[in-house]
Design brief:
The complex is a heterodimer. By secondary structure, chain A is of the alpha+beta class. Chain A has 2 domains: 217 residues, Rossmann fold (3-Layer(aba) Sandwich), CATH 3.40.50; 127 residues, Beta Barrel (OB fold (Dihydrolipoamide Acetyltransferase, E2P)), CATH 2.40.50.100. Chain A is built from 9 helices and 20 strands. In chain A, the strands form 4 sheets. A 6-stranded mixed beta sheet of chain A has the order 6-7-8-3-9-10, with helices on both faces. In chain A, helix 2 crosses helix 3 and helix 4 runs parallel beside helix 5. Chain A starts with a strand and ends with a strand. Chain B has 13 helices and no strands. The two termini of chain B are 39 Å apart. The chains are: A alpha+beta, B mainly alpha. At the A-B interface, strand 6, helix 2 and helix 4 of A face helix 8 and helix 9 of B.
Chain lengths: 355, 260
């Protein structure tokens, strides 16, 4: 049995609804929940902590059903985007708050220990309003972690932080979590958070969990077009023209692609290609194991930090490719050049047509 | 140079006009009597009685009002429950109601109904008694206090309370540790407004407790009784005392920056 089990959860609040949410996490898992605003992600976290009672369904933690348990008895920590620090307490008071309920002695040392780990030990006497966003978020983290919760829930903890503070907080969080083996559910709208932290991913939309699985699963095998779009894959519409020997040949209009995924001959399918799975070459490769070689024209180069996206056009079909700046320099290409896009058939994924 | 905005100027002018009118009206209360008159009237036995009774009943009523406004305001702000809309409408009603009608309703309730008889048997007789003053003030001020407390709690981020509960504190402990301290400005505002409202309650007190000379005579009743005898000095003095109380209350209320 999973460490945390959520089973057919239904929640109805005034304007938010959650439908048929089921998933399981093992101890130490780091689950990232991604989805557009209003997808019901926060409601899910708040019902796991116990602020909302489910209409239907059950939640299990360490084999015990907690669906109707009071929040104060669940020992699940929550960290919010707006930090929710207690304004009339000092930083010390905020961090020690939960600990005081449990212990009478050793509070001082424990607060100092976690504050040092999160680099906020010099702020203990300050009031929350005098801190920067990144500092406040670390206080909120310390407050949640110090009581050693069975489960830590975080609702967009980094979204109010600037990119540098975000990276730094992420690194500190990882350090602290690694030492504690805490199971985490983290809501974010930033895929880079998922790559940096998570091993499980769930995609939500309109109160429904569209897909749940390992990071690899969802990025390589998005179940629906929405998910594929959301995780940044190029989507091509096509028809299966041939299917044998474990291969599918798909006609996407301007060219054919070969996939190892199965679909019935004659069926209309969507094909997902991940930008990092496509290799580019300025010359037609002669002897190569990849089954798909597509002649394209380079339309645009879009820099993105140390990498850049290439926008390729095969007649009228667009492909997006991710390359490093270094590779781009060596290729020495400019818009208008002919480029060969090379894709292994194992990286051509057939996506469900639903939703 | 920016062009003159007629719309803005005329609206500001209307605002100033109405403020000026109010200032003149309030000012005349202070201009008409002589200081010596006020001093003498304040030490008059009737005035001393009325002032003392007003303060005592006002304080008791305010304490009672706050004892109810805090839980009711919190419940209305935080909880969803069956019939909440109905509850809010009924609780707010006395704000729009004439005080005299409220007084009449209370008079009927505490009179010959089973409720009135039951309370009487418990030693709580409200009709034409000093307890009636407290009851009248209580019901007149309560809706204002509840409104202020509700909007105070509405402004407190419920997530702070959520976090407190996730850290092991019960709802009641969270209310004591988090919600109450964060609501302190609202509690102060609500208390001063309630007190001012209690001290100034006239119609409800007149109908329920009666306006008997030196018996159920509070400041607004003193004003009313004296103006009917043509005793302007006493009427003005009670008016001034009431005005000062309201002024202090509004001044504190504005400082707390709480919405009504």
């Amino acid at each position: 049995m999973s460490f945390l089990g959520v089973e057919d959860l239904h929640i109805d609040l005034d304007e938010f609804h959650l439908r048929e949410v089921s998933f399981g996490l093992d101890r130490g898992d780091y689950m990232m929940i991604i989805g557009p605003t209003g997808a019901g992600k926060t409601i899910l976290l708040e019902s796991i902590v116990g602020f909302w009672n489910p209409e239907r369904g059950r939640i299990w933690l360490e084999g015990v059903e907690i669906s109707r348990e009071l929040p104060e008895r669940r020992n699940i920590g929550i960290v919010y985007q707006d930090y929710a620090l207690i304004p009339h307490f000092t930083v010390f008071g905020n961090i020690a708050y939960g600990l005081k309920k449990r212990e009478k002695t050793g509070i001082d040392e424990k607060v100092r220990e976690i504050a040092t780990a999160l680099k906020i030990d010099h702020l203990l006497h300050r009031k929350p309003e005098t801190l920067s966003g990144g500092e406040q978020q670390r206080v909120a983290l310390a407050r949640a972690l110090i009581v050693e919760p069975k489960l830590l829930l975080m609702d967009e903890p980094f979204s109010a932080l600037d990119p540098r503070t975000r990276r730094e907080t992420r690194r500190l969080l990882l350090d602290v979590l690694e030492r504690r083996n805490i199971t985490v559910i983290h809501i974010s709208h930033d895929l880079s958070d998922a790559w940096a932290l998570a091993n499980k991913l769930a995609i939500f939309r309109d109160g429904v969990m569209l897909q749940f699985g390992s990071m690899e699963d969802i990025f390589r095998r998005p179940k629906t077009r929405f998910i594929a779009d959301f995780v940044g894959a190029s989507i091509l519409e096509g028809t299966v023209v041939e299917n044998d020997n474990g291969y599918c040949m798909i006609d996407v209009g301007d060219f054919h692609v070969m996939s190892v995924d199965y679909a019935d001959k004659g069926s209309d399918v969507l094909v997902a290609l991940r930008p990092e799975d496509i290799i580019v070459s300025t010359h037609l490769p002669v002897s190569i194991s990849a089954q798909n070689i597509i002649e394209t024209r380079l339309r645009r180069i879009m820099p993105e930090g140390r990498t850049c996206y290439l926008n390729l056009l095969a007649h009228e079909t667009e492909l997006t490719v991710l390359v490093t700046n270094n590779a781009l320099y060596q290729l020495n290409i400019t818009p208008g050049d002919t480029i060969y896009a090379i894709i292994k058939s194992a990286n051509v994924r057939i996506v469900n047509q639903t939703r | 140079m920016q062009k003159v905005n007629i719309f803005k100027i005329s609206l500001t002018a209307v605002t100033f006009f109405i403020t000026l009118l109010l200032v003149l009206a309030i000012g005349s209360l202070f201009v008409v009597p002589s200081l010596e008159d006020i001093r003498q009237n304040i030490w008059n036995a009737e005035m001393r009685y009325s002032l003392k009774l007003s303060l005592v009943t006002g304080l008791i009523s305010t304490v009672l009002v706050m004892l109810f406004a805090l839980p009711v305001g919190y419940a209305l702000s935080r909880f969803h429950f069956w019939g909440k809309g109905f509850v809010k409408t009924i609780i707010d009603m006395p704000i729009a109601f004439p005080e005299l009608v409220l007084g009449l309703c209370l008079l009927l309730l505490f009179g010959n109904t089973p409720v009135g008889k039951l309370l009487s048997a418990l030693g709580l007789t409200f009709v034409f008694t000093k307890k009636g003053i407290v009851a009248a003030q209580f019901f007149t001020a309560l809706p204002y206090a509840i409104r202020i407390m509700k909007s105070t709690f509405d402004y407190i981020n419920p997530r702070i309370e959520f976090v407190s509960r996730s850290l092991g504190y019960s709802m009641a402990e969270t209310f004591k540790n988090i919600s109450l301290p964060l609501a302190k400005n609202g509690i102060l505002a609500s208390t001063v407004i309630s007190f001012a409202r209690c001290i100034g309650t006239f119609g409800t007190v007149l109908i329920l407790a009666g306006g008997s000379y030196m018996k159920t005579e509070i400041l607004p009743i003193t004003l009313y009784l004296n103006i009917s005898y043509g005793n302007m000095g006493m009427a003005l003095t009670s008016g001034i005392v009431l005005m000062v109380v309201s002024f202090i209350a509004i001044f504190i209320f504005e400082k707390t920056e709480v919405g009504l």
